[in-house]
Design goal:
globular, 14 helices, seven-stranded mixed sheet, binds NADPH dihydro-nicotinamide-adenine-dinucleotide phosphate
């Protein structure tokens, strides 16, 4: 049996050795999901809801264990890892209300009436990246299960530990066999098989835009339903009339959270020229205050990058002679550390300004006026997230409408909440997750005409 090794990114020590699922084992899991499908679809809405709540309770009861696995296997700061485990439980609980609210419509038509039913789409393949192993698993899992679909999750090869444990908790909570399975292994083996197998009716993929394109092409062969959550290069837009102190104090969190390995990272800070120097003066101490170090310590704010290869990739965006304005700190010694880095002034064609770095590197760029800010913000193939800082309500709304991106925050650095829709514009994705309408992505609308005669 082939295996792979999970390393602790903060120490480079081995945390676990995990079996790598083969194509044959993936097919066997799909067969178990097929066997479970009818009973799960037909389960009473109240029963499905109760099982989801029991599952949420089991996750809650194991918060510390799950957080410990994420600290060791992914290098996430423990406070963040606890929040992530809580997010899974909250999302399951939020969608546990959905089975009892899967309403259809009745539509009067000549000669009768039409009724619609929201039918589960079928087996869902959930392909998860390494940056947020728990929340991203939960965002697909909650609505997919609630809608009556069996789910097969493929965690990222580097970070499978929490998903494996959450799969065990689902069974302990009473989810029937085959309803939720976790298959650790390679994307090119397990992920590809989920895309290619005809019994899998929907793929939920979160990851790079490049792999997303391949998956979209694979799904096209069978006209398979697909949700894509891909890369980002989001702008944090600071107008001269903003609360500059607040904007500068939170800008490090907006980009350096999870060591910048965040699709929503505001990795371009656009600042109105008249306040540019003042903003930079305030940003510098905020960046230097970021507590980078041992993820197991409760006061740590930023941990290491995921791997040596990824650190080399991030470092390539800050070559010798790069325009580094200032940097935060990072530990020496073992671990894939990279200090928070602020670049200014950057050339418009600098890859650190145009490409997704997926590390703690931010470029700060001046703009002249509102039109210029919108033009710069939109000058990217991505459109996932962003922030707007201004005291002018009209401008906040105008710019929010003009920026081509899926999730924005005004006078705040964060825009992801499980009870609101999440997803990207342009090359950042396809379809929406989270929020009250997420069930639409996991159901098909069936339309039935009933003739009433005379
Ligand atoms: P990848 O695209 O490399 O991998 C994502 C997942 O897909 C992994 O589980 C991977 O498996 C699997 N995979 C790889 N190749 C295939 C294939 N041919 N068929 C099926 N599955 C495959 O992305 P990263 O893990 O590097 O994640 C980082 C990227 O994810 C960033 O670009 C980031 O912006 C994006 N992202 C987007 C989010 C959003 O919501 N929009 C949220 C979080 C991240 P394996 O581990 O074996 O490689």
């Amino acid at each position: 049996m082939s295996t792979f090794t999970v390393l602790n990114p903060a120490t480079e020590e081995t945390v676990a050795t995990v079996p790598s699922t083969s194509v044959e084992e993936t097919d066997a899991a799909i067969a178990r999901a097929v066997a479970a499908r009818e009973a799960w679809r037909a389960a009473g809405p109240g029963d499905r809801a109760a099982l989801l709540r029991a599952f949420a309770d089991a996750v809650d009861a194991h918060t510390e264990e799950l957080a410990g696995l994420e600290v060791a296997g992914s290098g996430h700061p423990v406070g963040q890892a606890r929040w992530e485990a809580g997010n899974v439980a909250n999302v399951l609980r939020y969608y546990s209300a959905a089975p009892e609210r899967l309403f259809g419509k009745q539509i009067p038509v000549p000669g009768g009436v039409n009724v619609t039913f929201q039918e589960p789409v079928g087996i869902v393949g959930l392909i998860v990246p390494w940056n947020f192993p728990m929340p991203i698993l939960g965002w697909g899992l909650g609505p997919a299960l609630a809608a009556g679909n069996p789910v097969i999750a493929k965690p990222a090869e580097r970070t499978p530990l929490t998903a494996i444990r959450i799969g065990e908790l689902a069974r302990e909570a009473g989810l029937p066999d085959g309803v939720f399975q976790v298959l650790p292994g390679k994307g090119s083996v397990v992920g590809q098989r989920l895309v290619d197998h005809e019994a899998v009716r929907k793929i939920v993929f979160t990851g790079s835009t490049e792999v997303g394109r391949q998956i979209m092409a694979g799904c096209a062969r069978q006209v398979k339903r697909l949700t894509l959550e891909l890369g980002g290069k989001s702008a944090n837009i600071v107008f001269a009339d903003a609360d500059l102190e607040q904007a500068a104090a939170t800008a490090p969190q907006a980009v350096f959270d999870n060591a910048g390995q965040d699709c929503c990272a505001r990795s371009r800070i656009l600042v109105q020229r008249s306040v540019f120097d003042r903003f930079m003066e305030m940003l510098e101490p905020a960046v230097k205050r970021v507590a980078v170090g041992d993820p197991a310590r409760p006061d740590t704010e930023m941990g290491p990058l995921i791997s040596a290869e990824h650190r080399a990739r991030v470092a390539s965006y800050v070559p010798a002679g790069a325009p580094v304005a200032f940097r935060g700190s990072a530990p020496d010694g073992p671990g894939y550390w990279f200090a928070p880095t602020v670049l200014a002034p950057v050339r418009p064609d600098d890859p650190a300004y145009t490409e997704e770095v997926f590390g703690p590197v931010v470029a700060v760029v001046p703009f002249e006026d509102e039109a210029d800010a919108v033009k710069l913000a939109n000058d990217t193939p991505y459109g996932l997230s962003g922030s707007i800082w201004t005291q002018n309500l009209g401008r906040a709304l105008r710019v929010s409408r003009a920026v081509e991106t899926g999730n924005l925050s005004v006078n705040s650095h964060s825009s992801v909440r499980y009870w609101t829709p999440f997803g990207g514009f342009k090359q950042s994705g396809l379809g929406r997750e989270l929020g009250p309408d997420a069930l639409d992505a996991f159901t098909e609308t069936k339309n039935v005409f009933i003739a009433t005669g005379e």
